[in-house]
Amino acid sequence: MAESKKHILAISGSTKKKSSNEAIIRFIADYFKNEINVELFDGIDTLPHFNPELDQEEPPVVVVNFREKIQKADGILICTPEYVFSLPGSLKNALEWNVSTTNFSNKPTAIIVAAASGEKALESLALIMTTIEARLPEESRLLIKGVKGKVSATGTIQDQATISQIEVLMESFLRTMRATDEVPTKYQV
C-alpha cells in the first residue's frame, strides 16, 4: 500500500518576496513532491505584534488561522535568514503567538538557516523550537552559509553540496514524521 504524502507547513522567516529562503522552500517542495505537499505560509508579515493580553479570550483571526495551519500539518519546515546575529523579528513574533498553545508539542520540525553566516540564528531557532517542545532531531537542522553564492537570482540552487545537505535533512524530517505517526503524544487522550 502506498504511503500518503505528508502535509508540510513551510514558514519563511523572510518577508522579502523572492527571497533565497522562499527559493529553498520551493526547491524542497518540488524535489520531494512525491513524498510531501508543501503549503507555504506567506502571512508572517500580517501577524500583529505578539501581545499576551490579545491571546487570552479571542486572539486575532489571522493568529487563529495560523495556529490552525500548524495543527493540521504533519510537520513544520522553517527556512530563515539571520538578521544581526539573530532571527528576523517577524519569525520570532510568529513563534511567540504559539507559546500559549501545544501546537508545536511533538510536532515534527525541520529548520534551515540560510544566510551569510547564520550560526547564531540557528542556535536561537533550535532553542526556541525545543523550548516549545517541537520534535527537532539534530539531523533536521541545517545551516546554509554563504547562501547568496548557492541560490541564483532566479531561485535555483546551484550548489550540489547544498542539495545533498537538504536531502539528508529531509530524510531525517520524513523519518521523524513517520515515527510520530506511530507514537501517541503525551497530549493525546
From TrEMBL:
Keywords: Oxidoreductase. InterPro entries: Flavoprotein-like_sf, FMN_Rdtase-like_dom, NAD(P)H-dep_reductase. Its EC number is 1.1.1.-. This is NAD(P)H:quinone oxidoreductase. Signal peptide: none annotated. Transmembrane segments: none annotated. One of its GO terms (molecular function) is oxidoreductase activity. Residues 8-136 form the NADPH-dependent FMN reductase-like domain. One of its GO terms (cellular component) is cytosol.
